[in-house]
Design brief:
heterotrimer; A mainly alpha (673); B alpha/beta (351); C mainly alpha (109); A: 673 residues; mainly alpha; Fumarate Reductase Iron-sulfur Protein, Chain B, domain 2; Rossmann fold; 4-stranded parallel β-sheet; 30 helices; 12 strands; 6% strand; C: 109 residues; 6 helices; globular
Chain lengths: 673, 351, 109
């Protein structure tokens, strides 16, 4: 049979395409139509419910944000780059990015082009009542090529359709292969699909080969291009003139129908919900409950892609896979309270899953919200904080010895501390001499709870300050109040707010202009939650880097090989990656770790987890160490007291380490030079 | 023909065992990794509970071991197991064909730098029990200049999951009480505090030592583990603990803090274990054939163990262990070893 | 038995017969390491809140075992969850989780 499309005669008044079936309907479209109508209803109702659950103020914000040029531009950029092209995945794992974008972008293009084809060639059919819903999908069945009247434009469209179909098929092939050898695409662990997931997945896989078959079988009648025509000829070669194209179109329609019907119950809802989630997120609306309101958009935006499985540091041990973000979200959807709580309490809050998520789902924040539903209502009594007097708790660098506080303890009196002090203090008071500070310091140094257990940091920081001639006050030399972030991480948001209020008052009344923190956890909360007007909040790595850069601190460079570990709260938490490295390069040679910057592996000592035991944490530390030691450094440099302690213990207790590696703090290393 | 016996480790266990085996008529070769014999005993001043001078005991051990071939600064290069014997190549070039091997590799002290919250190596006025013992021997340490308030911290690196050692080191409580008395003798006006979790004074005369410390020397024993130490501006230490008996957190300013570093398996265990194919338990010490009835035999025929290589021990226990090991070796070399034909059978029955 | 009248004032003795085993087992199911506390006092010594107001996990555990759960809750109500106690516990107990668990189990009516 001669390929008809080779004849390029074009006559304007003769239609290029013949609308073959006058009624515009054939029974096989029913499965698809049922499926898609169901799906559209579901998503329509879902959207409405969701937006109604969002508080009114947030809804207004969302509406307004659509018109702010900057946000609108960001929305459009993200919709294209993340939803269609999956740029975030391409950046980290190209083959995987190709796979996802092939299916997403390819299918998107096929749908758009299908509609354009209908608009161009049989515009009457765009009307919904005349088959507009299914015409663009089953175009090639309903029309015939008018032999002898094909145009370049027609051929071009056929070419495009075939091209994108091939593109999708290559993605599908990779997807099937991924089920067997996922490591080739860069994923060590993949998500275990639920039943609805499987239905959707298998029908999705089948859709495109069936489309190829169906379109190929009708290609000699309704035209095709470089893909469908050869396949058509191949089938003719195999089966002669008997081509079963009706069964193929039926199968194609059924698969489509199944896919759309199962979609609301499977992971593929993300295709549409992530659009809504991106709009909400860019409007700055955050969920404050793990399930209701905005969270629902976030939860359904998760595509179950499983990239968080490899990201999570706990998954060094296979038994911890079930605590990953993807399963957390799955159980949230199913309202499985027990499992949700178990997963929420385990998380280290290292934020790596959030950083690597292609849709930007903030699962740690959802976990914190979940913890809050349980822990925020627990009783607590912070009345003692209210009686802490502000001015006298700050001391200058010139102070000697004893603390300087005088506070009434009503709570203490309640519990029996009513013995008067030997120096004649009234009952209910615990006394120590008052020593008001003499001058207002330029810099206030807040060590934080953890740093007191790693005194090397304090000593080194004070030495650096003295060497650089910084006038500073040590806010909690004798111990202070916690910064409040551990309470936030545990979900006790009210208690955290109380602590923050007290600390904020004290710091503001100290009159300093810069607040230096040595612990990244403190740094993050002081930066984001305290809203300290007029005070510059810096981490000590940034501060010391500035001191070196401005020449106030002189250091010597040696060729000491060091590797820097990005702490979770400093790197992913606050975006500080370059300053510590800049400072360290002035002091020695930095080697690379196998995973750094926002992919750096948590040390395992994080306060975020409520239920991880020491054995599991040790395994995480060992994995993190392995990543750091690839460049064979002499020293591991940390910028966090918890990381310092965890790595020191891991290095000492590790039985398999052959060479000795030192673990040093950032300030310590600077001091040594 | 006299059997050759290789003894690895020249500490008290190795010396005592070699003296006994030599007396029994065997040909003993003793190797010691460091430059001097005596192990940790050579670094101590006086021994608990009766405060006998350590050099006397060491001198006795060395005299008894006279005539034994001792190689210091020597380690094992390679060992091959032949049918019954061990062909050992030493780092000094000598090869020994030994019929039995006694491992007396001893222990190492926990490196207190690892317990960062106590500030050893960070603050000036913090020292360990080993440093203090050296001070008593030599009389000078720049940290000790008429201290008025001195604290002892028990269980540093022992009974502590965070330092990687769950078990008790046995001897540190008695050492702490002894050193508390000794430092009070050196500085009678000082106040001495001992911060403990439990006081393990199990041996003969140990309880008397405790009574003496309290009665004659006024040492204050506080039940509560020191959890954090910071430094005041004048260099004195601010120590935080809880007085668990009174149920209140406590702090005190001290001029000197002594950390009781515990016992750890010797660093040589890994290498030796590999050379000899010996098993090591989770706590890092060598396995024995049976903890109660065969504590000097390793699970492998021909390899014996004595001293702190199998777990923390006091000095008298170490010496008794060494003598028991000598007996076991003698029994092995007379009953099992000579019978070439039934060797395997005998090992199965009697090892 | 004649009730002589020495019941004038409530006894200040600890009465172990009043120990609530069921609640304790519930707590131990959530956090099994509550059983291995050896009362060394490290947690109390480093406590951030303990500097200002009596706060002690060791004492809370002891109070629970001595059938005094109100005291236990009192001893923990000022906790700031800072984590210093977890860092120093020699038995490796996850003290923060234990504190949250005690509060959850014993504050239920």
């Amino acid at each position: 049979m001669t390929p008809l499309f080779n004849l390029l005669a074009a006559q304007a008044e003769v239609p290029e395409v013949i609308d073959r079936i006058p009624s515009g309907f054939s029974y096989f479209v029913i499965p698809f139509t049922v499926g898609i109508v169901f799906f559209l209803c579901w998503i329509g109702v879902g959207c409405v419910r969701l937006l109604r659950a969002v508080p009114r103020t947030d809804r207004l914000r969302l509406w307004k944000s659509l018109f702010i040029p900057k946000t609108a531009a960001k929305n459009i950029k993200e919709l294209f780059c993340d939803c269609l092209f999956h740029v975030k995945i391409w950046q980290r794992k190209p083959l995987l990015g190709y796979m996802h974008s092939a299916i997403a972008f390819g299918w998107f293009m096929i749908i758009i082009l299908g509609h354009i084809e209908v608009a161009l060639f049989v515009p009457a059919r765009l009307n919904v009542t005349r088959g507009g819903l299914f015409y663009p999908i089953f175009y090639r069945y309903f029309v015939w090529m008018n032999p002898g009247h094909t145009t370049l434009r027609g051929a071009f469209f056929f070419f495009l359709m075939d091209f994108f179909l091939l593109y999708i098929l290559s993605g599908i092939a990779l997807a099937v292969f991924k089920r067997f050898r996922s490591i080739v695409l860069g994923m060590r662990h993949t998500t275990k699909p639920s039943f609805a997931d499987r239905v959707s997945l298998y029908s999705l896989w089948m859709i495109f080969p069936l489309r190829l078959l169906a379109e190929s079988f009708t290609a000699d009648l309704s035209g095709g291009s470089f893909l469908t025509i050869p396949v058509n000829q191949f089938w003719h070669f195999l089966f002669g003139d008997k081509l079963w194209f009706m069964p193929c179109w039926w199968a194609y329609s059924i698969c489509l129908g199944l896919f759309f019907a199962a979609m609301p119950f499977s992971r593929y809802m993300h295709i549409l919900t992530e659009v809504l989630w991106i709009l909400l997120r860019n409007a700055g609306i955050k969920p404050n409950h793990p399930r209701k309101g905005v969270a629902e958009a976030e939860i359904y935006a998760c595509s179950s892609c499983g990239l968080c499985l490899d990201a999570c540091p706990m998954n060094v041990q296979k038994k911890n896979l079930k605590f990953s973000s993807v399963y957390f979200i799955r159980f949230l959807r199913r309202h499985n309270e027990k499992k949700i709580n178990a997963i929420a309490d385990k998380c280290l809050m290292c934020d790596k899953c959030h950083a690597l998520c292609p849709v930007g789902v903030d699962a740690p924040a959802l976990r914190r919200a979940q913890r809050a539903t349980v822990n925020n209502s627990l009783p607590y009594d912070y009345s003692y904080l209210g009686s802490v007097v502000s001015k006298d708790t700050v001391r200058t660098a010139k102070d000697t010895g004893a603390a300087a506080e005088l506070r009434p303890y009503s709570a203490a009196a309640k519990r029996g501390w009513t013995r008067p002090g030997s120096d004649g203090c009234p009952e209910g008071m615990v006394s120590e001499p008052i020593q008001p500070y003499s001058s207002i310091p330029e810099v206030l140094y807040f060590a934080g709870c953890m740093t007191h257990l790693t005194p090397r940091i304090i000593k080194s920081v004070e030495k650096v300050f003295e060497a650089a001639g910084v006038e500073y006050a040590f806010a909690d030399r004798d111990g202070g109040i916690c910064c409040g972030r551990p309470l936030m991480l545990a979900g006790k948001t009210d208690a955290a707010a109380a602590t923050i209020a007290v600390n904020k008052k004290m710091i503001q009344e100290s009159g300093c202009s810069t607040l230096v923190l040595s612990c990244p956890i403190c740094f993050k909360v002081f930066k984001e939650e305290y809203h300290l007007e007029g005070i510059k909040v810096v981490h000590y790595t940034q501060f010391i880097n500035e001191l070196i850069a401005s020449g106030r601190l002189k250091v010597e460079k040696t060729d000491r090989k060091m590797v820097y570990h990005d702490p979770c709260e400093l790197g992913r938490g606050c975006g500080v990656y370059l300053e510590p490295r800049a400072a360290l390069s002035q002091v020695g040679t930095l080697v690379k770790a196998s995973k750094e910057y926002d992919e750096s592996i948590c040390c395992g000592g994080s306060l975020g987890s409520l239920t991880l035991d020491t054995h599991d944490r040790t395994k995480i530390s060992e994995a993190s160490l392995d990543s750091l030691l690839v460049g064979k450094p002499e020293t591991i440099v940390t910028a966090c007291p918890l990381c310092l302690k965890t790595f020191s213990e891991a290095v000492s207790n590790a039985k398999y380490l052959t060479e000795t590696v030192q673990v040093k703090d950032f300030a310590e290393v600077v001091c040594e030079h | 023909m006299k059997n050759n016996i290789l003894i690895i480790g020249g500490g008290p266990a190795g010396l005592e065992a070699s003296a006994q085996l030599q007396r029994m008529g065997y040909n003993v070769i003793l190797i010691e990794r460091s430059a001097k014999l005596g192990g940790h005993l050579a670094k101590w001043d006086r021994l608990f509970p009766d405060r006998v001078p350590a050099d006397e005991v060491l001198g006795g051990l060395l005299r008894a071991a006279e005539g034994v071939k001792c190689f210091t600064d020597t380690d094992i290069r390679a060992i091959n197991r032949l049918e019954k014997s061990y062909n050992v190549r030493l780092t000094n070039g000598i090869t020994v064909l030994s019929d039995a091997v006694l491992v007396a590799s001893g222990f190492d002290l926990f490196n207190a730098v690892r317990k960062e919250e106590y500030g050893y190596g960070i603050y000036n006025q913090v020292m360990t029990n080993a440093d203090l013992e050296a001070y008593f021997k030599t009389g000078n340490d720049k940290r000790i200049e008429n201290p008025k308030k001195i604290g002892f911290v028990h269980c540093v690196g022992s009974r502590d999951e965070k330092s990687g050692c769950r078990s008790c080191s046995k001897v540190c409580c008695a050492t702490a009480v002894k050193q508390a008395i000794e430092i009070k003798q050196a500085f009678p006006q000082a106040e001495v505090f001992c911060f403990y979790m439990d006081l393990r004074l199990f041996g003969r005369h140990y309880e008397d030592l405790y009574l003496e410390a309290q009665k004659e020397y006024g040492v204050r024993f506080i039940r509560g583990r020191v959890a954090e130490v910071s430094e005041n501006y004048d260099g004195t230490l601010l120590v935080k603990a809880e007085d668990t008996v009174a149920s209140k957190p406590l702090k005190v300013t001290l001029d000197l803090l002594v950390l009781m570093s515990g016992m750890r398996p010797s660093a040589s265990v890994k290498e030796l274990g590999e050379h000899l194919g010996m098993m090591v338990e989770e706590d890092g010490y060598f396995s024995v054939r049976s903890g109660i009835s065969a504590g000097q035999r390793s699970p492998q025929p021909g390899i014996f163990l004595a001293g702190a290589a199998t777990g923390p021990k006091t000095l008298p226990e170490t010496l008794a262990d060494a003598r028991a090991a000598a007996m076991e070796i003698e029994r092995y070399l007379t009953e099992i070893f000579p019978d070439a034909r039934n060797y395997k059978q005998l090992v199965k029955e009697r090892w | 038995m004649v009730d002589f009248g020495f019941g004038l004032v409530p006894s200040s003795r600890i009465n172990l017969d009043l120990f609530d085993k069921e609640k304790y087992e519930e707590l131990a199911a959530m956090e099994p390491d509550v059983r291995i506390c050896m009362a060394c006092g490290s947690c109390t010594a480093v406590c951030t809140a303990g500097k200002f107001v009596p706060t002690s996990l060791r004492e809370a555990i002891e109070a629970i075992k001595n059938a005094n759960s109100e005291k236990a809750l009192q001893m923990l109500e000022s906790c700031q969850l800072c984590g210093k106690c977890s860092m120093v516990c020699p038995r490796g107990i996850n003290t923060r989780h234990l504190i949250l668990s005690i509060t959850k189990v014993y504050s239920k009516k």
